[in-house]
Amino acid sequence: MPHHEFEVSKCIPERKLHAVVKGAEEDLTSVLPLGYLNTIPGTLSERGCAYCGAKHVIGTPMKDVIHISHGPVGCTYDTWQTKRYISDNDNFQLKYTFATDMKEKHIVFGAEGVLKQNILEAFKAHPTIKRMTIYQTCASALIGDDIAAVAQDVMDEMPDVDIFVCNSPGFAGPSQSGGHHKINIAWINQKVGTVEPKITSDHVINYVGEYNIQGDQEVMVDYFKRMGIQVLSTFTGNGSYDDLRGMHKAHLNVLECARSAEYICNELRVRYDIPRLDIDGFGFGPLSDSLRKIGLFFGIEDRAQAIIDEETARWKPELDWYMARLKGKKVCLWPGGSKLWHWAHVIHAEMGLEVVSVYTKFGHQGDMEKGIARCEAGAMAIDDPNELETLEAMYKLKPDVIFTGKRPGEVAKKIRVPYLNAHAYHNGPYKGYEGWVRFARDIYNAIYSPIHQLALLDISQDVIPTGQGFVTQKMLAGAALDEATRTSSTLRQYTGGYDSVSRLRERVYPAFPGQTAATAE
User: Recorded E.C. number(s) (predicted)?
Assistant: First the structure.
């Protein structure tokens, strides 16, 4: 697995240690890209900070809570919910964001007074909400404001409210992953065990590391309920503050995103002797295995198998339809931490996609190791790439689609590479059997969209097709899927002489230095 040096980063030789190309039959533990280290000066990283990891990723999916940041308003605005963490209380946490709006004068004279004032004003503005989380930022941490003391003062004055304090300033870790750890440990230290929940089943779980992106959590909870399992709390998608205070009474912690939430699972095991079971809600095979594991733990395997059989029979034919049309398409898998390895193998096995690159901005080396292990030889693995490295990788690898966040996705669109939002989804949820088919549909639509194909044409010389439907219409009409049919003279006419979407895109990549121009047949 030789290290890969980007042309654009030759002036920063340390970056060579943060990218590798997977070789055949290599020991992954011996050579991995360096990860979860402080950002190298000069690389213009696109990482999030620890405060972002605590508030934006884990804290604010909690639905019945006033989330207030003690710091400049920019910190709050940057972490307002751009992810689709929906909830069943009219999405209160998506509609509002709160900040103390610290200014220079507060840095000089302190801001504990303005924090208390803001807390009282927030509770007054939303009298039905009795719970609050306060997030520390770099500014309030550097001047030493005692947030916990202010929170306790308010709780003494207002006995019906409860406040959680998360001390996770931006500098608390190399990336947002440091904030994940901070809020996990703070929650179990401050709040777990302070409420006694009502137990209604012999099978009780905490669903941990699940953030209800476009309804992911609801899909999984439905499966659990059909198995007769009580979901005591969800950490933290559509999660209730008081339900999460009662996590200590669960029989099992079911963990989805290990990168963001394994810390609280491990502490619950040590302090309350609650076992941890890692699952995967993405893909028919991994999801079926996960439901079986949970069923085996509680001795209800037959209930799990009944769900698997029913859902597979309903949705597998549709997945097979998409797999036939996606097979061999190249994808850059550039999502958050856990999807790196949740998706790498299963999109290949169940959709036929070839993963040509994986990357992570905040994942640890363990995440990268699992992701690389599930890729084919030749895949490029990158830790904390910047925009220029991202562009160079796309020009080199020539993917048909990338799965990433909105910022890198917009960069990809500029060079006419379609992308799917791996963080907030395009048309989710993506978990569950139907959700996995929905994901395949979004990939298909991204690659074969007639609008995308139009973007690849040169209006100065290509025939501009109108009303023909391009590749998509031919597929839906039942055209043969083999390459010979897809390069027929009729299709050549539709696409200005180019035999496929990939062939069209050949003329886009030469814009990058070192690439040679492709010509039509």
Answer: 1.18.6.1
